[in-house]
């Protein structure tokens, strides 16, 4: 699937925005995620099979998650804001297993299924300026090969990506879909520092 520069950028999900996914993304495979208030899949729970901008009515805290199908983004705050967490099919017996900073999950989205190529172009300055580098594979330690890991802008040409704050896919996570990001704040980060980046590939 090709992307042209004339294609309007998709909405960026950050704390100050509440956006809807484009209509083109509404065709999805069936997915299911279950949130549990207690560790090890105990206590009050809630099953979800679609996007939800507000989960607080269904549970007050989240200490374990089970995903039967699909890939999901979970968010610390309502309206797809706050800390972001990429979740694949599987079991997460406590919030440390998904890299959580606390036991709060207040919104979630299903990541659309994707089969195709991956390509992202990163820049050392805002508005696509300065040194640039194109990646088509995962990079576990960006700081060794690109501008000490500082990414000030990015153009996601193909596929879905996660930028990680630290090397080896650790620290805060930022979800990027195809589109142009003229400054790091547009993917929800308060800093250009990026330790690693990874393609989102659905696990079967």
From TrEMBL:
Protein's recorded name: Crystallin, gamma MX
Statement: the UniProt record of this protein carries the keyword Nucleotide-binding: no
Species of the source: Ictalurus punctatus (Channel catfish)
Gene Ontology process terms (BP): lens development in camera-type eye; visual perception
PANTHER family, sorted: BETA/GAMMA CRYSTALLIN (PTHR11818), CRYGMX PROTEIN (PTHR11818:SF107)
GO molecular function ontology, one term from the record: structural constituent of eye lens
Function noted in UniProt: Crystallins are the dominant structural components of the vertebrate eye lens.
Family matches, as Pfam families: Crystall (PF00030)
Family (UniProt): Belongs to the beta/gamma-crystallin family.
């Amino acid at each position: 699937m090709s992307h042209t520069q004339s294609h309007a950028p998709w909405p960026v999900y950050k704390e100050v925005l509440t956006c809807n996914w484009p209509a083109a993304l509404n065709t999805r495979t069936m997915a299911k995620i279950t949130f549990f208030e207690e560790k090890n899949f105990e206590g009050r729970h809630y099953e979800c099979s679609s996007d939800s901008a507000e989960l607080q009515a269904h549970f007050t805290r989240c200490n374990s998650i089970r995903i039967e199908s699909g890939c999901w983004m979970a968010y610390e705050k309502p309206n797809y804001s706050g800390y972001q967490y990429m979740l694949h099919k599987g079991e997460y017996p406590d919030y440390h297993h998904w890299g959580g900073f606390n036991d709060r999950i207040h919104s979630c989205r299903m990541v659309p299924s994707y089969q195709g190529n991956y390509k992202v172009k990163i820049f050392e300055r805002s508005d696509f300026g300065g040194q640039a580098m194109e990646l088509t594979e995962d990079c576990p330690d960006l700081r060794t090969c690109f501008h000490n890991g500082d990414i000030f802008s990015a153009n996601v040409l193909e596929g879905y990506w996660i930028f990680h704050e630290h090397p080896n896919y650790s620290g805060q996570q930022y979800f990027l879909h195809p589109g142009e990001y003229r400054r790091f704040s547009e993917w929800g980060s308060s800093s250009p520092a990026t330790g690693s980046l990874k393609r989102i590939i659905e696990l079967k």
